Structures are given as structure tokens and as C-alpha cells.
Amino acid sequence: MKIQLPDKAQELFKPKRYKILKSGRGGGKSWSIARALLILGSQGVERILCAREFQNSIKDSVHKLLSDQIEEMGLSTFYKVDQTSIKGINGTEFFFEGIRSNINKIKSYEGISKVWCEEANMISKQSWDILIPTIRAEGSEIWISFNPELEDDETYQRFVVNPPKESVLIEMSWRDNPWFPEVLRQEMEDLKTRDPLAYETVWEGKCRKVVDGSIFAQEIEAAEKTGRINIVPYDKGYPVMVAFDLGWSDFTSLWFCQRIGDKINIIDFYQAHLQEISHFVKVLQDRGYVYECDFLPHDAKKTELGTGQTIEEVLRRLGRTTRVVPMLSIKEGIDAARRLFSKAYFDKEKCKEGLNALRRYKYAYNDTSGQYSREPLHDMSSHAADGFRYLSIGMSNNPGKLVHTGNSALRSQVQRSRFSAVIR
Q1: What radius of gyration do the chain's Cα atoms show?
Q2: CA distance 49 to 93
Q3: Domain boundaries, the chain
Q4: Quick check: helix, strand or coil at residue 235?
Q5: How, if at all, do strands 93-98 and 322-324 pair?
């Protein structure tokens, strides 16, 4: 079989536990991986899991890319392409999953010989910690492809800054891509002339501090320069307040903070999706903090289908003290968040996922006008950012300083016992 591949992609055929391909736009890494996997799958029986952080439907996967390459490579008589799967006549099979929404299914996969993690810059620490032990067949490999974005991203730190043993890092660019089209070359040259820094990120795969159009770029930069993103331990002398952004298919995001004098210590962050509210109450319980109250968005007052209760009512029934924050405009909420940033101290490890979402929170871009909108883009970073807005509104509307007292501690401990009993 004679198939064209970039010279650097020959590394894909040499045994390694981890094969990491990073590049800017137009590097040809996805085509290279697709072709290499299809070749290997035709030469021997492979069970290949194609994974990404989020996959709401098969359209979000690399299914079409593989299908197109099967046609291009003349392998249509070998591979049978169905709507949700690809199978070879020798028993090779490709599976397609989103890690975050199919955790239990991911854990159940057996005999996977190779996993391809596409757009891996979006994969969280939690997902890597779940996925990697699942790929345990003798000689199994994990292939990782991504365009670097933020230096603090889990994937960049885990596989580029601190690469594991038995790994190879393949850095590809448009220069290595034999299929690089002229139309992209012109776009590249235009951006290089117009915005050299953007060119370095988009086409050369260099990391940036914040994304283009970032809403909180200045606030995050100031927090980093003044050492306010550091180790911020839980202080047992003060109660914890929690701010929720509610979702189901989208994330429910939780920020944990303490007011200590004039400082706001943001000590923890958690988010998940496709989980009932009792799951998050269990998370709160397991943290072991003494709580003062939960700040909730206005939609916590909506009656949930199937229960006849609001989220606020469910939380109160489970022993939580709640406060629904005033319903302000998004702009007013962002302004409140900017004010909170100036006195906020973030725990860099426990809040890492939330901080990365704040770095990615950006204004929508209009391709037609070439201008950024005044409205934030709704994407996977929005939920953590919305939760931070609700935290900011809640803290700014909270009368006076919350002071830990013996009675407050006792009341909070009793609350934990109450909803612990409910959950059990």
C-alpha cells in the first residue's frame, strides 16, 4: 500500500505508549493520524477508540474524517462505514466517544489497542485520569493531537512540559503538510502581516496567556503578577460560600470562597454535567467545609419537570442555606466580576479548571464584520464564567462581613449531617 504521509508522521508506525502531535493550523496532523490508523487497521486487528472531551453526536467526532480518508485511500472494499461505526473485514473496529459524558462507558471498554484523542487541548485532568488507566492492553498506545492554546492547559503540561516515559512528541506545521492548500497559505500570510502575535499562535502553534477576545485578560494578568494565583488553603475559622451555575447537558459549575477581612479567597472549584442536584450536594459534603450559604442564579426558582420542585427547594430540603442572587444583565455581572477580581486570591491547583475557563471566556466574533460582539460567546467555558459572575453578584450583595462563630459552625455541621442522612 503506497499512501502519501508527511515525513514526520513516520514516527506513528514506531511503537510508543504515547504519540503526541501538536501543531498550528494546517499542520496535517489529523489527516496523518487518520491515514496511519487506517493503514495499521488494515494490516492487523485493531480496536481503536476515537475520543474527545465532548461529543454530543457522531458529527462531533472524527468519523467523517476517517470515512473520507477511506475513500481517498481506496480502502472502501476493506472498511465498512456505518453511521456510528467503522469496521474492517479483518475485525478491526473504530469506536467514537466523548469522555466527559460517557465516563462509565469509557471505563467499560476492554481490549482497546489504540486511542486517538483529537482536540486534546480541551481534555481535562479528570478525563485523562479516567481514560489513561482504561487503555491497558499489552502494547496499547495513546495518540494525542491538538493545537496548543494556553500554557496552563492540562494536556500541554502533561504531555509537552512534563512528557511521560515512552512518549514521542511530533511537532508539525504547515511546512510539513503535503496537502497544504494555496487558499490557506494566503490566509496565513495575511494574518502574519496584520497580527504577528496571532500568527504565532494560529499557524506556528505557540501558546498564549489568554485567548483572543478574552473578557478577563487584564484581570487574570494582574492576579498573576501580584501573586494572587497561588496556594490558598481552606481556613477553618471562616465559613465557605458556594456559587452555582446550573446546567444539565451543559455544566453545573461551583465556586467555593471565603471572605477573610478585605480578601476573597477562592479555595475550590468543581463542575460536571448530566448529574442530578443531589450529586453536587454530595460533592459539597465530601469537601468537608463548614458552609454559610449557596448563591444561586435566578433560574433556581423554576419548577423542574418531573419533580414539581425548584432547585432552590431541593437544596433547602437537603439542608442547604440558599440565596438567589439579583437578576442583573450579563454586562452588570461582568462588571461585578471585575471588581471581585481585584481582591480575589485563587488556589492555583483546586481552581485550575475554573481559571482555565475564565481565561477562555471571550466575546463572540462576527466573521462578517470582523469585529467582536458585546456579548460573550456561549461555549464550554461559559458555565464556569457564569458561576463566577453569580459569585461576584452574591458577594457584592451580601450584607457585611461573614464572621465564623461557634453557633454558625455548629449550625453548618448540623446541616452537613442532615443532608448526609438524606443522601445515604
Answers
A1: 24
A2: 8
A3: 13-202, 217-423
A4: coil
A5: unpaired
C-alpha cell at 64: 467523517
Distance CA(77)–CA(205), nearest Å, equals: 37
| pLDDT, position 411 | 42
Q: Which set of grid coordinates corresponds to residue 23? A: 501543531
- Residues of the chain with pLDDT below 70 are 1-2, 209, 304-307, 367-368, 370, 398-424
Query: Which pLDDT score is estimated for 302?
Result: 85
C-alpha cell of 376? 460573550
What stretch of H or E contains 202?
helix 196-202
Q: Is 165 exposed, middle or buried (0-12, 13-18, 19+ CB in 10 A)?
A: exposed
The fold of the 13-202 domain, in CATH, is Rossmann fold (3.40.50)
Is the Cβ–Cβ distance between 174 and 188 less than 8 Å? Answer: yes
Residues 36, 31: Cα–Cα separation, whole Å: 9
Provide the pairing of β-strand 79-81 with 86-88: antiparallel
Distances 222 to 138, 226, 229, 263 between C-alpha atoms, Å: 48, 6, 10, 15
What cell was used for 209? 496567556
Residue pointed to by grid coordinates 497561588: 230
Side-chain half-sphere of 209: how many Cα atoms within 13 Å? 12
pLDDT at residue 2 in the model: 63
Closest CA relative to residue 253, chosen from 236, 264, 266: 266
All three cell numbers of 347? 488556589
Strand locations in 114-233 (E)? 114-117, 141-146, 167-172, 229-230
CB distance 245 to 272 below 8 Å: no
Give 217-423's CATH code, choosing from 3.30.420.280, 3.30.2010.10, 3.30.160.250, 1.20.1250.20: 3.30.420.280
